[in-house]
Amino acid sequence: MEIMVFGAGYVGLVTAAGLASTGNHVVVADTSAEKIQMLKNGKVPFFEPQLPELIDSGVKKGNLEFVQTQNPEFKKKLEDAEFYFLAVGTPEDDQGRTDLQYIDSVVDVISELSSDLRDKIVVVKSTVPVGTGDRIESKFKGKNKFPKVVSNPEFLKQGNAVQDFLRPARVVIGTEDEAAREILVFLYKAFMLKRDRIVTVGRRSAELVKYACNAFLATKISFINEISQLSEKVGADIREIREGMISDPRIGDQFLFPGLGYGGSCFPKDTISLIHQGEAAGMTMQLPRATREVNRLQKQWPLRRLEKSFGKELGKKKICLWGMAFKPNTDDLREAPSVEIVEALAKLGATVHAYDPVALERSRELFSNQVTGGQLKLFTSPYEAASGCDALVIVTEWQEFRTPNFKKLKGAMANPLIVDGRNIYDAAMVSRYGFDYFGVGQGQA
Ligand code: UGA
Q: Residues 426, 428, 434, 439: is their CA dihedral positive or negative?
């Protein structure tokens, strides 16, 4: 099939490379000349395991190419495509409402084609509020264009995006059009050789499925985080509580790790969008509201913990952070707990030392003021970062932090205190090396 994917971000590039891997011919279009040039030079603009290899293989087979939307070649490629996958950003505006300007501009670009577009299919992969498919369709109609508009939300997780695309738990296709449904099912069957996991639903339902999934997962995280706070207060251990919960198959063992609150580009944005969508429909979305509030409080846990240890002296201390990315296997800092911690500590006057295996460059850009002002120092070794520090906070649970050299770490630190925001260590074990230890929701420790 001839496919054009709009947007060279996480969703766009993974979708494009994934669809190219089954033999389709895919062109990725983006407005950013810089991004397209990077991709043409064989570089991926962000860190995502396995993606560079998948892209490279698509390019080598001649199944995958990149074009900037201002390039003279773009028009011809636009004409040739049978499918337009929309994977552009849908950020929140300053009120937390979904900003659809990038979707609108892609619709405008496609509408410029001379045909009536009856033989084309527009597939919306970006996360968009319910009713956006209808809105897109009527925008096209207003220009006398009649493509089929399908909702096909994406469920990939950063850090595991390639595997999520190639071996999806399910694919949701939302359309009322029989022919569009049939051809999209065919396109995705290639990823389901063992078992069919395609869910075909109406377009509005598909749009809402995406928000329901993300809000539900965010709710699970806030639930366990809230119980972790209670657990800490009453002298229980959240790790034991989790074990007791997950042995019930109705509850399951996924997304029930307590931590420093969820971050990233999806859960924070989608929960607030759901609240607005509820308001627009005349109802209050109680659970997303509570989920967000619990998440806000959870992000403050390390600071509250450090304040308990150091009191007013915290502003004079050196605090080391291991991990800056919002989760392991990504260099993404959007809504990462590290951001709040760095800002709050810098405001108090403390010095922050930080190490992250891949997010150092992005941290340098994001915190350019704090780096220039000397409040944040970035290190390429975890032990150098910890050197001379009064506390170590585990912010992101990168695999390489799980069994460090505790002797070396203790020798490097000025004060042996570990504040473990991801519960990757055990109090009894680290205390053998002479550390004071606090884990999330571990009232006993
Ligand atoms: C999330 C969803 O998991 C994907 O299914 C969805 O496609 C994606 O959003 C999206 O809408 O594009 P992602 O944001 O990449 O994926 O990352 P997750 O692995 O879901 O983690 C989100 C946050 O929750 C992270 O900050 C993570 O540390 C936190 N988390 C996750 C916990 O605190 N506890 C857990 O048990 C699991």
A: positive
Residues facing residue 2 across a β-bridge: 25
Cα dihedral sign, 436-317-380-261: positive
Measured distance CA(392)–CA(407) in Å, rounded? 14
Is 410 close to ligand 1, i.e. is its CB under 6 Å away? no
HSE-up of 332 (CA within 13 Å, CB side)?
A: 20
On average, the pLDDT of the chain sits at 97
According to DSSP, the β-strands at 351-355 and 318-322 are: parallel
Residue with CA nearest ligand 1 atom 24 = 262
Q: Please tell me the distance between residue 342's alpha carbon and the centre of ligand 1 in angstroms.
A: 22
Confirm if 397 and 424 have CB atoms less than 8 A apart: yes
Q: What DSSP line would sit under 336-386, residue for residue?
A: -HHHHHHHHHHHHT-EEEEE-SS-HHHHHHHTHHHHHTTSEEEESSHHHHH
The pLDDT tens digits of the residues spanning 204-231 come to 999 999 999 999 999 999 999 999 999 9
How far apart are alpha carbons 255 and 157 in whole angstroms? 12
**3-class state of residue 8 by DSSP:** coil
Determine the Cα angle at 400 with ends 395 and 401, to 5°. Answer: 40
CA distance linking residue 161 with residue 226, whole number of Å: 29
Contact 5, 27 (CB under 8 A): yes
Is residue 303 within 8 A of residue 344, CB to CB? The reply is yes
User: Is residue 267 in contact with ligand 1, taking CB distance under 6 Å?
Assistant: yes
Give the pLDDT of residue 445: 57
Of 133, 137, 95, nearest to 273 by C-alpha is 95
> Does 223 contact ligand 1 (Cβ within 6 A)?
no
Tell me the catalytic residues: 266
Q: What is the DSSP string of 34-71?
A: HHHHHHHTT--SS--TTHHHHHHHHHHTT-EEEEETTS
Q: Is the distance from the beta carbon of residue 217 to the nearest atom of ligand 1 less than 6 Å?
A: yes
Angle (deg, nearest 10), helices 337-348 and 301-310: 30
Tens digits of residue pLDDT in 140-194: 999 999 999 999 999 999 999 999 999 999 999 999 999 999 999 999 999 998 8
